[in-house]
Amino acid sequence: MGATIACNLIVAGLDVFSLTLLIPFLQTLFGLQASTTQKVATGGVQRMLDQVLGRFLDVGDKMGSLQRVVLVILAAIALKNIFAWISGQLGASLQELVTRDLRNLVYRHLLQLPLSYFQRTKTGQVVARILTDTSQSKALITELVTRSLQSGATIIVSIVVLVSLSWKLTLVSLVLAPMLIGLLQPILKKLRKRHRRLSNEYGEMTSIVQEAVSGIRLVKATGAEPHETGRFTDASGRYAKAMTRVAALGVLSQPLTEVAGTGIAVLVLWIGAQQVLVDRTLDGADLITFLLVVLRMLQPLKQISQVPATAQSSMASAERLFEVLDETTEAAADRGTRDVVALNDGVRFENVSFTYGDEPVLTDVSFDAPKGEIVALVGASGAGKSTLVDLVPRFNAPTSGTIRLDGVDLQELKLTSLRRLTGIVSQDTVLFNDTVRANIAFGAPGVFTQAQIEAAARAANAHQFITELPQGYDTVLGERGTRLSGGQRQRIAIARALLSDPPILILDEATSALDTESERLVQEAIDRLLAGRTVFVIAHRLSTVEHAQQILVLERGRIIERGTHDALLARRGAYHRLYTMQFRERDLSADVVMVDA
Is residue 554 part of a domain? Predict the structure, then answer.
C-alpha cells in the first residue's frame, strides 16, 4: 500500500508538471519571454519552471528552445506512465491480497460459529457472503487506493499550481467545486440501501439453486421441475428488478457531475478572460495553462465524486460481511477452563430443559449414562431426541439444568477437549470430495498411519470394497461420496469413528434405509464400534436397541418411560405400542414381498 501511494503521488505530480510546461512553450512560441522574465519572482510555478527550463531556453533560438521544451514534456509524460504502470501492478496485487485475507477471515470465522447460526441462516446466504460479498468489497480497495489516491493527489497538486497562477480564479473554482459532492449526497444514501437489498436478493437466488441441486432426485421424482423453475424465475426477476433500480440511480452521478463541472469551467473562462483583456493581471499563456489544468482536474474530480456511489455496493457487502464477523464464535463464548482427556464415570443429565425461541423442546430431562453403557432414545419424530444428543457435544446449551461429565458441568470444560471425546455417526452420512483415506482420517491429516486407517476400515467392514475402487484408498469419492452406495458411505463413517476412538459415541441409527446385506455389514461394524463406549443411540428400528442397558421413551420433550427392553415390554405402555406397531408393519411388508414373489 505504501508503494502504491508513493507511485500515485509521483504520477499526480508529473501529470500536472507536464501541463505547466505549456507555459514556457507558449511564451517562447509567441515571443513573451521578456514578460516572463519579469514575472519570475512573482509566481511559484514561474520560479519552478525557470529553475527547470531556464538553462534550456534561448531568446535568440526559438525553435531550439521549443524543441528542448517538447523533449522535457515527452520525458515527463513517459516517466509519469512508467510510474502509473507500476502503481497499477501494485494496486492490483493489493486488492487481490486484501480480498484473499478477508475471504479467509470470514470463512475461518464462519466455521467457528455455533450450530444455531447455521440453523437460522440459509446455505445460499452463507455462500454468497463468503464468495460474492468479499469479491464486491475489493472495489472499495480499488477505488480508494489505486484510483482515488491518485485522483486526490492530482487535485491537490493542481490546486497548488492554480493558486500560483491566479488565486482569484482558484478561489472561484474551489467555492463552486463542493457543489459536485453536495448534489450527490441524497443519491448515495439511497444507493447503499438498494445495494444491501440487492445482496439479499442474490443470496435468496443462490439458496434456491443450492436447494434444487442438492435435492435434484426429489425434484425429478415428483415432477417438480416447473415448480422449481418458477421459484428461481421469481427470485431472478426480483434480483434483476433490484439491479435495474440500483443502476438507474447510480448513473445519475455522472451527468450531474459533468454538467456542474462544465458550468464551473465556463465561469472560470469568463473571469479569466476579463483578467487578461481588461485588468491585465494575467497573461494569455497563464490563462490557457490554468484552463487546461482545470479541465485536467475535472476527470479526477468526477472520479472522486463517483467514489461514494461506487463504494455503496462495497459498503453494503462489507456490512453483510461484518454481520458474520460480529457473530460470537463458539471459542469466544466458551467459558470452560478445564481440560478433559478421558471419560471415567459417565454422563449425567440433571433436570435439563431446552427452549428454541419460545417453544419448549426438552423439559426436565434427568438420567445417567454410565461409562460403557448404551442409552437408547426412542419416540416419535419431534419428540426431542436429536436435540437431546446435540447437548452432549455442546452444539447447543441447556436453557436450564446441568449436564455433567464425571461430575463436572460441561460448561466448565474446554469445548475443544470435550469434542475430542465425542464421535458422531448419523443417518445422513457426510463425506467430502476427497480421497477415501482423507475421509476416514478427516480432521487429523498426517496423524494416523496407513496401517491404522486400514485397520479401522477392516473393523468397519469397508476394506474390501475400498480396495476394489479404481485407486483404492486414493480414490476421490466425489461430492458427498456420490460414487458409493448408502451402505458403503455408512461404513466409511463408522471407520472414521473407529479411527478417532472416542469414549462417547452418538449414533443416529443408520440402517433403516439399507438393503438386507448392507444392513448386516453395517450392523456388524456398529457392534464393534459400540464396544466399551458410552453410547447415545437415536433408535428408529426398536429391534436394534433390544440389548441397550437403558431405553428412554420421549414424548414432547419429556421422558415418559425408561428401562430395559424386556421391562418396557412387560409394562405394556408407550414403548410396547411403538414396538408392536413396528413389528406389525414389518409383517405386513413381508406379506407384500411374498405376494410379489
Answer: yes
Number of compact structural domains in the chain = 3
DSSP secondary structure of 169-225: HHHHHHHHTHHHHHHHHHHHHHHHHHHHHHHHHHHHHHHHHHHHHHTHHHHHHTT-H
Same domain for 202 and 75: yes
Do 148 and 290 belong to one domain? Answer: yes
| Rounded Cα distance, 213 and 285, in Å | 69
For residues 350 and 345, what is the distance between their CA atoms, to the nearest angstrom? 15
Residue 466 sits in the same domain as residue 516: no
Residue 44 lies inside a defined structural domain of this protein: yes
Do residues 176 and 200 share a domain? yes
Calculate the CA 175 to chain-centre distance: 43
User: Cell numbers 431472478 label which residue?
Assistant: 236
Nearest Cα to Cα of residue 246 among 209, 302, 202: 202
Residue-wise pLDDT tens digits, 283-325: 777 777 777 777 777 678 767 766 766 677 677 788 888 888 8
The Cβ of residue 343 has, within 10 Å, a number of other Cβ atoms equal to 20
Q: Cell 499550481 sits at which residue?
A: 161
**Amino acid letter for position 508:** D
Whether 274 and 352 share a structural domain: no
Which residues form the domain of 401? Answer: 346-421+502-596
The residues with which 508 forms a beta bridge, in sequence order, are 538
At 120-139, the pLDDT tens digits run 887 777 888 888 788 777 77
Q: What is the pTM of this model?
A: 0.68
Partnered with residue 505 across adjacent β-strands are 423, 535
Q: What is the DSSP string of 249-311?
A: HHTTHHHHHHHHHHHHHHHHHHHHHHIIIII--S-HHHHHHHHHHHHHHHHHHHHHHHHHHHH
In the predicted structure, residue 4 carries a pLDDT above the cut 60 = yes
- pLDDT bin (cut points 50, 70, 90) of residue 401 is very high
Range among 130-134, 268-272, 359-363 rated most confident: 359-363
> How far is Cα 297 from Cα 301, in angstroms, rounded to an integer?
6
Question: Are 169 and 271 a contacting pair, CB within 8 Å?
Answer: yes
- How would you classify the pairing of strands 422-425 and 504-508? parallel
Q: Which residue has the higher pLDDT, 60 or 469?
A: 469
Q: Same domain for 361 and 470?
A: no
Q: Is the pLDDT of residue 366 over 90?
A: yes
Question: Looking at 442, 465, 500, which one is the last position of a domain?
Answer: 500
Q: Is 516 a domain residue? A: yes
